[in-house]
Specification:
The chain is α+β, with helices and mostly antiparallel strands and about 625 residues long. The protein contains 19 helices and 17 strands.
C-alpha cells in the first residue's frame, strides 16, 4: 500500500469509528513559544489532553506535519528524517484501551496488510516503588488479537534496554514488558521525573520486524528496542490514566485519555517491506530525478548518504516554506537555511552545482499535492526562495573558501575552533570544510569543533529559556491578561490602519507581548497612541469575554478576524470582547487562554516599541504597567 493510500485509509478508518478528522496544524506551533517546531502529532492536542474541551468533540483524528531539527545530524541512515507525518487519534475521556488496541491491530493487519508475524509489541512493566501496576491488560488484549490470526504471542519481561541486549528474544515471544524509560509517557518523562499535577500513563509501542541480521556492535542480542535496524517502531498507544498527587503518589486521572501516534513513513516502510524509509514510494520520484540529474545511483554505497540528505532536506524545506517560514539567520528561518545549504552542499558532492533544489521541487510537490494543496498554492514562492538561497550559497562558497585558505596559510593547520568560526560567521558547513582540507592532508579536530558547537547550543538554549520564560504555554494570569490585550491591540490596529492588517506571529510572556502584523510601513507614534487608547478604553468599559463555537466557514463569512484559517478544524472557538451598550471591541478566532472580563487585567496597556520584523511585517512590543 502506498503512503498516500495509508494516510487516506487511516483517516477513513477512524471516521468509521466516529472520529472527527481535523486538518494538520502548521509546522510552527501555535500558542507554544517554548519550541520552534511542532515535533509530534500530539503537540497541538496538549490543551485538550490536559482538560480543555475540543470544539469537535471527544474523538479526534488527523495526520500532523512534524519537524525535528535535532535529527538533522542523524539524517543519512535508513530511518531518520527531519520532516515526517504523524497519524494520530485521540480520546478525550471517551473510549479506552480495549478499543484503541483492537482498532490498531485491525488497521495495521487487515487494512494496511502488515503480516502479524512481523508485528511485535512492548508494554509497561510497572513500578513497585510508585505503586504503578504492570500493564497486563494491554498485553492480554494484544495476545487475544494475535491468537485470532493464529500467531503465538508469549508475553515476557525485559525491563531495561541493557537487559534486552543481554537476554534477547526466543521463539514465540512477541509481547515485551519494558520499564518507565521506554513504556511510560508524560511530558516530563518517567514517573519519578513528573511534577505534581502532571498527567501520564503507560504506553504500548508497536514494532515491525524486517528480519535483517543483528549488528552485535549495538549489543550481544537483538530485542524490539534495539537500534541495529532489524526492528522499527511504527506507532505508540499512550494510555493517559494517572495524575501525580501532592504527596508524590499517583492517583487516577479524572478524565482518562488515549493518545495514538503512528509514523506514516514508517508504517509505509513496513507495508512495503523495506527497512529503508527512502525506498518508500513517496520518495521514488525525487530519487529517480536526482539519479538522472547526477548520473549517480542511490544504491551505490558511496552516494546513498548524499542522496538521503538531499531528499530529506529539500522535502523538509518545501513544507517549511509552504507554512510561511522564510530563510533567515534566526529561529525557524535559521534551520531552514541550514537545510537548504546542506542539501546544496551534498548536491555538489554528486556533481550538481546549480539549481539542485529547484529541479527536485516538482517531484516532491507532486507526491504530496493531493493531501496538501498548499504546496501547489505556494509553488512559485517556494521556487523563488530556493533560487535566492542558491545564489547566496554560491557566494558563501566563494567567501568561505577564501577565508578557509587564509586560515590554513596563516597557521599551517585548521583547528576545530577555526572550523566552527567558518560555520557560524561565514555559513560554511563542516562537511564542506572537511572536503577541502582532506585534499590537502589536513586533519581537523572534530572533538574541538563539537565542543564549540555544544557550547554554542547550550548558550542558545539558555537564551531561549530566558526569552520564553513565562510564555503562553504556562497560562499564567499575567500572560493570559496580555494575550487578551493583544487581541484588543490587533482590533485597534485594524481600526487605525485598515483590514489588510492580520497577525503574522506572536510571543507573549508575563513581562510583555511581542506581536508581528502585516503592514508595509512604519506606524507613527500618534497612531500607536490611539491604539493604546483603544485597548485601555475597552478595559475601562468593563469589557467581558465570551467564547462561542462556530462553523469555520460561517465565522469567516461573518468577518471574524483570524489568521492561518487552514490549521483550524471545521468548528472554531470565536472570542468576542464586548463592552457596555454591546460595543464589540474584538471578535477573533483563537485557541489560547483569555480572561473572562476586564477586572482580571491589572495595569495600563503601553506600546513600548514598533519596528520592522521582515518584508511587509511590522513588530510591536507592549506591556501592562
Amino acid at each position: 500500500m502506498k503512503l498516500n493510500d495509508i494516510r487516506a485509509q487511516y483517516l477513513e478508518y477512524m471516521r468509521t469509528q466516529d472520529h472527527v478528522i481535523v486538518p494538520s496544524g502548521r509546522i510552527i506551533p501555535d500558542n507554544d513559544p517554548t519550541t520552534l517546531f511542532t515535533g509530534s502529532g500530539m503537540q497541538p492536542m496538549i490543551p485538550y489532553l490536559l482538560g480543555d474541551d475540543h470544539p469537535e468533540g471527544s474523538r479526534i483524528a488527523d495526520s500532523q506535519k512534524c519537524f525535528r531539527a535535532e535529527d538533522i545530524e542523524e539524517v543519512g541512515d535508513n530511518r531518520h528524517t527531519t520532516f515526517f507525518e504523524m497519524l494520530g487519534n485521540w480520546s478525550f475521556g471517551d473510549y479506552g484501551k480495549k478499543e484503541q488496541i483492537t482498532w490498531m491491530f485491525d488497521f495495521l493487519v487487515r487494512k494496511v496488510g502488515i503480516d502479524p508475524k512481523n508485528l511485535y509489541i512492548t508494554c509497561y512493566i510497572g513500578d513497585e516503588k510508585n505503586d504503578l501496576s504492570q500493564d497486563t491488560e494491554a498485553a492480554d488484549l494484544w495476545k487475544g488479537l494475535f491468537a485470532s490470526v493464529d500467531v503465538d504471542a508469549d508475553a515476557v519481561e525485559i525491563g531495561t534496554e541493557a537487559q534486552g541486549y543481554a537476554r534477547g528474544i526466543a521463539e514465540g515471544e512477541r509481547i515485551f514488558y519494558y520499564d518507565g524509560a521506554k513504556n511510560w509517557w508524560s511530558r516530563a518523562g518517567k514517573p519519578d521525573h513528573m511534577p505534581v499535577g502532571e498527567p501520564g500513563g503507560p504506553d504500548s509501542e508497536m514494532f515491525y520486524d524486517f528480519g535483517t541480521p543483528h549488528d552485535e556492535s549495538y549489543g550481544a542480542h537483538c530485542h524490539p528496542n534495539c537500534d541495529c535496524g532489524r526492528f522499527m517502531e511504527i506507532g505508540n498507544n499512550v494510555f493517559m490514566e494517572y495524575l501525580k498527587k501532592s504527596d508524590g503518589t499517583f492517583g487516577p486521572l479524572p478524565r482518562k485519555n488515549i493518545d495514538f501516534g503512528g509514523g506514516l513513513e514508517r508504517i509505509a516502510a513496513a507495508a512495503q517491506g523495506t527497512p529503508d524509509i527512502y525506498k518508500v514510494d513517496a520518495f521514488s520520484g525525487v530519487i529517480v530525478r536526482l539519479e538522472k540529474l547526477s548520473g549517480k545511483s542511490y544504491d551505490d554505497a558511496d552516494h546513498t548518504f548524499a542522496f538521503r540528505v538531499i531528499v530529506d532536506h529539500v522535502r523538509g524545506s518545501i513544507f517549511m516554506l509552504s507554512d510561511g517560514i522564510l530563510p533567515s539567520n534566526k529561529e525557524q528561518g535559521y534551520i531552514l537555511r541550514r537545510l537548504l545549504r546542506r542539501a546544496m552542499f551534498y548536491g555538489t558532492q554528486l556533481g550538481l552545482d546549480e539549481d539542485v533544489l529547484v529541479q527536485l521541487t516538482p517531484e516532491i510537490i507532486a507526491a504530496y499535492e493531493d493531501a496538501y494543496p498548499i504546496l501547489v498554492e505556494t509553488r512559485d514562492m517556494i521556487i523563488r526562495e530556493m533560487k535566492t538561497e542558491e545564489e547566496k550559497f554560491h557566494k558563501t562558497l566563494v567567501r568561505g573558501t577564501r577565508e578557509l585558505h587564509k586560515m590554513i596559510e596563516r597557521d599551517g593547520e585548521l583547528t576545530g575552533e577555526d572550523a566552527f568560526v567558518l560555520f557560524t560567521t561565514y555559513g560554511f558547513p563542516l562537511e564542506m570544510t572537511l572536503e577541502v582540507v582532506e585534499k590537502r592532508g589536513i586533519v581537523v579536530d572534530r572533538d574541538a569543533y563539537e565542543s564549540e558547537f555544544a557550547r554554542h547550543r547550550d548558550l542558545s538554549r539558555t537564551a531561549s529559556a530566558g526569552k520564553f520564560k513565562g510564555g503562553l504555554a504556562d497560562h499564567s494570569a499575567q500572560t493570559t491578561a496580555l494575550h487578551t490585550c493583544t487581541h484588543l491591540m490587533l482590533a485597534g490596529l485594524r481600526k487605525e490602519l485598515g483590514d489588510h492588517v492580520h497577525q503574522a506571529g506572536s510571543n507573549i510572556t508575563e513581562q510583555r507581548t511581542r506581536f508581528d502584523f502585516t503592514h508595509g510601513e512604519k506606524v507613527e507614534r500618534d497612531v500607536l497612541d490611539r491604539v493604546e487608547a483603544y485597548v485601555n478604553d475597552a478595559i475601562a468599559d468593563g469589557m467581558v469575554v465570551e467564547m462561542l463555537q462556530m462553523d469555520k466557514q460561517v465565522a469567516k463569512d461573518e468577518g471574524v478576524e483570524g489568521s492561518f484559517w487552514e490549521k483550524y478544524p471545521d468548528t472554531v472557538n470565536v472570542y468576542t470582547m464586548t463592552g457596555k451598550d454591546d460595543v464589540v471591541y474584538s471578535q477573533e478566532l483563537c485557541g489560547g487562554p483569555h480572561v473572562s472580563d476586564a477586572t482580571e487585567i491589572v495595569g495600563t496597556f503601553r506600546i513600548t516599541s514598533e519596528k520592522s520584523s521582515s518584508a511587509g511585517v511590522r513588530r510591536i512590543k507592549a506591556s501592562l504597567e
